[in-house]
């Protein structure tokens, strides 16, 4: 039976065996039924009560690891640690896992937290992803490195931000409306220095020529939002910022030009661009990177309502004093 504590040890089958937290991975591997060839990256074996009171999973990084290029090594460590986590998370009793991150602390931290992630809204066991939860979701397993390092901590931020993007994109459309999206973003950025969150509604400055965006909102009853995240981490707060723009259609039915019904539920993911840029900004802000950043994402649903924009409703107006403006014919006639 597995214990509540476990150890993950990535190992190079072609390198001299070194003890990690009282474990000799090559010696353990020799006890498994294996052939003459070195185990491929991600090949695992789990041992109970090794060392006493713990479960240990060893995982290969592949033959000739030391001779590989830097980025190749990093990916092999991710594959190795990820495979070990997937094996351990099948054991209900495992609650704490110590990871030997000596080969690449950053890669090990990213892999552990990404591999642990599993989105579910099933109700037979209360889901940690239920947006009605008062407290943030807690990980099923708590990870820690054998030796603490800044690179491990940095990798955790990377993985947590990626997992936020995965969560936002997985929510069904009734749980991640434009309003719910902006509320979740505000909560995620609470207490982080140098960040300003601005949420605008449909009345936001019509002179910015955003009528193309607004025309998409005509068929839905959900209020549209325009989200801005402003992060000023550079020494010069007035320096030109990096800009991220993400598409935020929280459900895209196709509007009047209705998409095929088969697989339409996947169009909840049409806000994946918004999820990605928001999550990238969260990592940047948590790490307090020395840059200025502006994130903008328009958020709405595209639905076939009675006021939905129809094919052919778009018109282009050009004059010598302003850039091209895209307007809807309905709005032109309303203003005449």
From TrEMBL:
Gene Ontology terms for molecular function: manganese ion binding; metalloaminopeptidase activity
Gene3D superfamilies: Leucine Aminopeptidase, subunit E, domain 1 (3.40.220.10), Zn peptidases (3.40.630.10)
Transmembrane segments: none
UniProt-listed InterPro entries: Leucine_aapep/pepB, Macro_dom-like, Peptidase_M17_C, Peptidase_M17_N
Biological process, per Gene Ontology: proteolysis
Superkingdom field: Eukaryota
Keyword line: Aminopeptidase, Hydrolase, Protease
GO cellular component: cytoplasm
SUPFAM superfamilies attached to this UniProt entry: Macro domain-like, Zn-dependent exopeptidases
Domain Cytosol aminopeptidase: 163-315
Domain Peptidase M17 leucyl aminopeptidase N-terminal intervals: 24-120
Pfam families named among the record's database cross-references: Peptidase_M17, Peptidase_M17_N
Cited PANTHER family: CYTOSOL AMINOPEPTIDASE, LEUCINE AMINOPEPTIDASE-RELATED
Family from the record: Belongs to the peptidase M17 family.
Protein name per UniProt: Cytosol aminopeptidase family, catalytic domain-containing protein
Organism for this UniProt entry: Ephemerocybe angulata
């Amino acid at each position: 039976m597995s214990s509540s504590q476990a150890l993950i040890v990535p190992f190079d089958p072609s390198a001299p065996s070194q003890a990690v937290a009282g474990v000799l991975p090559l010696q353990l591997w020799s006890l498994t039924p294996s052939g003459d060839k070195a185990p491929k990256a991600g090949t695992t074996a789990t041992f109970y009560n090794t060392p006493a009171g713990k479960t240990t999973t060893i995982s290969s990084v592949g033959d000739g690891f030391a001779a590989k290029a830097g980025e190749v090594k990093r990916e092999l460590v991710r594959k190795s640690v990820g495979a070990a986590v997937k094996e351990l998370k099948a054991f209900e009793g495992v609650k704490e896992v110590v990871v030997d991150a000596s080969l690449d602390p950053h890669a090990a931290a990213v892999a552990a937290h990404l591999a642990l992630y599993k989105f579910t809204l099933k109700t037979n066991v209360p889901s940690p992803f239920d947006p009605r939860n008062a407290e943030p979701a807690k990980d099923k397993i708590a990870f820690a490195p054998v030796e603490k390092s800044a690179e491990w901590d940095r990798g955790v931020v990377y993985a947590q931000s990626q997992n936020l993007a995965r969560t936002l994109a997985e929510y069904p459309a009734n749980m991640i409306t434009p309003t719910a999206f902006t509320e979740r973003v505000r909560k995620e950025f609470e207490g982080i220095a140098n960040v300003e969150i601005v949420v605008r509604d449909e009345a936001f400055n019509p002179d910015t020529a955003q009528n193309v965006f607004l025309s998409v909102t005509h068929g839905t009853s959900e209020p549209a939002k325009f989200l801005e995240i402003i992060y000023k981490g550079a020494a010069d707060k007035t320096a030109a910022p990096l800009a991220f723009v993400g598409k935020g259609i929280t459900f895209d039915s196709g509007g009047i030009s209705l998409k095929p019904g088969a697989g339409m539920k996947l169009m909840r993911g049409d806000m994946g661009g918004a999820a990605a840029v928001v999550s990238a900004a969260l990592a940047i802000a948590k790490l307090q990177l020395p840059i200025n950043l502006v994130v903008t994402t328009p958020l709405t649903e595209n639905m076939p309502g009675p006021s939905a924009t129809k094919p052919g409703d778009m018109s282009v107006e050009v004059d010598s004093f302003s850039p091209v403006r895209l307007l809807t014919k309905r709005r032109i006639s309303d203003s005449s």
